[in-house]
From TrEMBL:
Broad class of the protein's primary localization: membrane
Cellular component, GO annotation: membrane
Transmembrane region(s): 6-27, 34-53, 65-86, 106-125, 131-149, 231-249, 269-286, 298-316, 322-350, 362-381, 414-432
Organism: Panicum hallii
Pfam families: NFD4_C (PF23262), Nodulin-like (PF06813)
Domain Nodulin-like: 1-150
Cited SUPFAM superfamilies: MFS general substrate transporter
Top-level taxon: Eukaryota
Protein name: Uncharacterized protein
């Protein structure tokens, strides 16, 4: 069982990395965060879709989930491969149309919103097998609709002519390997950035303090990344933010049971899934509102962390059904935004070509945080619980387990998690303050380049 779980975990990590790298290399810098937000948002709906599939096939058999996990990803990958290859073969025949691309993404976001609402609403209902097939058919139709828009636009949302000279964050060939040796490239980029810094210092440049990121999109090797202060601030913000929300969702069943809210568990899971999904969609706000709201993406990241400590302190002070629902919604919204925005932040701060390696280094905090925060919850739960003997109806054996009921089971845990997320919020604010000049410098240089070209 351990070996199977290990292989599954490695495959998930590899699959996510390939998808992230494919999005980053296949879309222009202006559309890349939108594509990442969409793909990660649909990733958050997979649990609801699998539940619909399982209810239609065999609602009483848990093994059907294993069958779906084994077959669906492979089948979907085979179906998606021709579309990806078709788009790349037509790159030389089409021109990039930014305004048209924005309309395409707007249509995709509307469909994503409708699909998410459909899956969340109908996925939380208990239906007969025939009704489950009807709901599943509707979900499959909605999931297939986004394929029509790119097909009709003839893959025009791709950046057909390679790098965008107006953007420092764009790059090149989607057929390059995932791991790129960029030591020489980093050195040349550094020399070029120093030269540009001196050239633009008088008019558009900004002198930055030592240790801060000078520009966005500069490639960081793994060794350089680990020695970067901004990375560890970013790591702490993620470790003390989104990872806590993930652990909360994993313990939601036991939390509901201890607070005598077991009957609302399905609704709580639906609330977390829905708000996590919409939080992922909202991660596109920095790109949608960039002309109206001039805020660095790290600033949006800090703002997204604000609801997390609020939720935990709220549930610490008052533990009832309505408070649990509100807290779950806030945690889902905050963690969903961070999950979706993190890939774009990693790409902007530490280089798009190295994002496959750098982002995997970042998310090493997830297993570490899951173990640490899970242990905190388990210690508090066991300390306030009572030993009970339970008989297994299938085997007839009697097992001893610890069960805790009441507000004391998770009260201390909520307080500790709230303090931890406050640390994550503080770290994200410091990161925002340190990277704000880099975002301003990049915007200033882009403006200067447009003035020179005109």
């Amino acid at each position: 069982m351990f070996l199977v779980c290990l292989i599954a975990g490695c495959s998930i990590c590899w699959f996510n990395t390939v998808c992230f790298v494919l999005c980053i290399r296949s879309f222009s810098a202006s559309n890349r965060p939108l594509a990442l937000s969409l793909s990660i948002s649909f990733n958050g709906l997979s649990a609801a879709f699998y539940t619909l599939f399982a209810n239609a096939l065999s609602p009483l058999s848990p093994s059907v989930y294993l069958l779906l996990n084994a077959m669906l990803p492979f089948a979907i990958s085979i179906l998606a491969l021709p579309a990806i290859l078709l788009c790349h073969t037509q790159e030389s025949q089409h021109h990039s149309m930014p305004n048209h691309d924005r309309r395409v993404f707007l249509g995709l976001y509307i469909l994503a919103f409708v699909t998410g609402t459909y899956l969340v609403v109908f996925g939380s209902f208990t239906a007969t097998r025939s009704a489950a097939w009807v709901i599943l058919t509707g979900a499959m139709v909605l999931l297939a609709l986004p394929l029509i828009i790119p097909a009709c636009s003839n893959c025009s949302y791709l950046d057909a002519h390679g790098p965008d000279p107006a953007s420092p964050l764009n790059h090149d060939d989607p057929h390059k390997p995932l791991l790129i040796s960029n030591n020489h490239q980093t050195e040349s980029d550094a020399v070029m950035e120093i030269t540009m810094e001196h050239q633009l210092q008088g008019s558009c440049g900004t002198l930055l303090h030592k240790g801060r990121l000078a520009v966005l999109g500069e490639e960081h090797s793994a060794k350089r990344l680990i020695g970067c202060v901004d990375f560890w601030l970013y790591y702490t913000a993620y470790f003390c933010g989104a990872t806590v929300g993930l652990v909360y969702s994993n313990n939601l069943g036991q939390i509901a049971q201890s607070l005598h809210q077991q009957s609302q568990l399905t609704m709580l899971l639906a609330v977390y899934s829905s708000f996590s999904f919409f939080g992922r969609l909202l991660s596109a706000l920095p790109d949608v509102l960039h002309r109206k709201v001039s805020l660095a993406r790290t600033g949006w990241l800090a703002a997204a962390l604000v609801p997390m400590p609020m939720a935990f302190f709220l549930m610490w002070k008052q533990q009832d059904g309505s408070t649990l629902i509100v807290g779950t919604a806030l945690v889902g919204l905050s963690s969903g935004f961070i999950f979706a925005a993190a890939v774009s932040v990693t790409s902007e701060l530490f280089g798009p070509k190295s994002v496959g390696v750098n982002h995997n280094i970042l998310i090493t905090n997830i297993p570490l945080g899951s173990f640490l925060y899970g242990q905190i919850a388990a210690m508090v739960y066991d300390a306030n619980g009572q030993r009970m003997s339970v008989m297994d109806n299938r085997t007839g054996t009697i097992d001893t387990m610890i069960m805790c009921m009441g507000v004391r089971c998770y009260s201390t845990t909520f307080f500790v998690w709230g303090c931890i997320t406050l640390l994550g919020l503080a770290s994200s604010i410091v990161l925002f303050k340190r990277t704000k000049p880099a975002y301003a410098t990049t915007a200033s240089r882009s403006s200067c380049k447009h003035q020179v070209s005109s």
